[in-house]
Amino acid sequence: MTVANVPKQKQFVFDFVERNAKAVATLGDSIFYFAELGMQERESAALMTDILEEHGFAVERGVCGFPTGFCATFGSGEPVIALHTEYDANPDNSQASGAAERTEITARGPGHCEGHNCNAAVMIAGALAAKRAMEEFGLPGTLKVIGAPGEEQLISRPYYVRDGLFDDVDVAIHDHIGGEFHTVYGLTHMAAVSAYFTFLGESAHASTSPWKARDALDAVMLMDMGMAQFREHMEPTMRAQRVVKQGGDQPNVIPSRAMVWWTFRAPTAEGAGTLFEQGKRIAQGAAMMTNTEVEVEVMSAVWPVRTNQGMAEVIQRNIELVGVPEWTADEDAFARRLQEQAGTKPQGLRRDVTPLTGPTQQRAPSNDCGDVSWAVPMGRVSFPANIPGVAYHHWCAGAALATSIAHKGSVAGAKALAGSVVDLLADPALVRRAKETFAEELDGVTYRPLLPPDQKPPVALNREMMEAFRPQMREHYVREKPVFA
Fold first, then answer.
1. DSSP code, position 229
2. Domain 196-297 adopts which CATH fold?
3. What's the whole-number mean pLDDT along residues 268-277?
4. Contact present, 468 and 23 (Cβ < 8 Å)
5. Distance (Å, rounded) from C-alpha 476 to C-alpha 115?
6. Does 322 have pLDDT greater than 80?
7. Number of CB atoms found within 10 A of residue 429's CB
8. What is the DSSP letter of 75?
9. What is the pLDDT of residue 5?
């Protein structure tokens, strides 16, 4: 792809990504079939770090206590640009790619049902292209490539920011899959606090001596009832969701231990913290009513995501240069079938780049890159490698993730990402613009981590589930290795 009136270094990265389209696809497909849950992304992290190391990056593995986290660095001096993204899957969403009906690869197994496999491929390909341009054209600066485990549980990046991984960074870019090719600025996602509530009581025989027990499961249920009553008094933009992680072993033994996992969301960090404090009070009330004790363990705590106007302007120019891939009639028909399956309007694939408007409207989801976005100016490349209108965390959102739709969209995303990095390296005024707009956007707000200062990463999260499914899943791994030339 040759674009008229494009600087040589930008055409260079576009050409690099284009000629490595097969490697981009193979990397994304490999991570799709690894389908590793958060904190257990061993194969995914190993593949990415091996590629980065092979191509001249200095790789630090296991950063900030995360076995599947990493930070790869190339170059020196300013500006320091950080690329960061996630690569985890979700439980119970195994879905055969290319199938427009529910078709599990591994029965009840984990699967990519959003597209983090493509996020990883775009980040690595964009980083390799930018690194080659730095060498070819003598571009000054430092490129950091940061792998973030456990995004679906909102885990790693608040630790990264708290522990100083972004302290020397001037600007950052997050890439994420979507159904359209665009970027935005403003508040995009909500803040969240996620915590385990463990109730401790005393067991007894449920038939012969229930009066001797202190029922921990009763406490979980009473907390649920308390939160249900409190929802009437929550602000309309607040959210609270839960799953019961432990509720006992058998009906004739009253459980002495029960655990529920709650996530509290709000548009602001302060609001999420306030909602969490109310949840703790309700939990204490449930414990009092059941004569049990409650222990509260924060697992993750994230600020809302704020994307920067100066960075969005740089990214948008590159998105418009690259343009939306040319979709075939078969690809569009497949998208329409999936949209019908998902119960949304069968609109097919997007044909045009989405214009930059803003500030954008804040939405209900959360992403753990939020803490990064309050520490440094951060932009986001949203690339068109999935089906428009299909909700994530549903099998339909996994059906295209190792098809030509994902491959073409990932190539487009990697070009836009690499082009944006080259622009920022070549023109210091763009970095200054990002920092100036960032200062205006903060409007005096001081970032303070919601994460407790002594909190440790939950490295065992999802380990048991992955150990159970990995042997079956290994049969479907891509045997070919991605080779970037």
1. H
2. Alpha-Beta Plaits (3.30.70)
3. 96
4. no
5. 18
6. yes
7. 9
8. E
9. 76
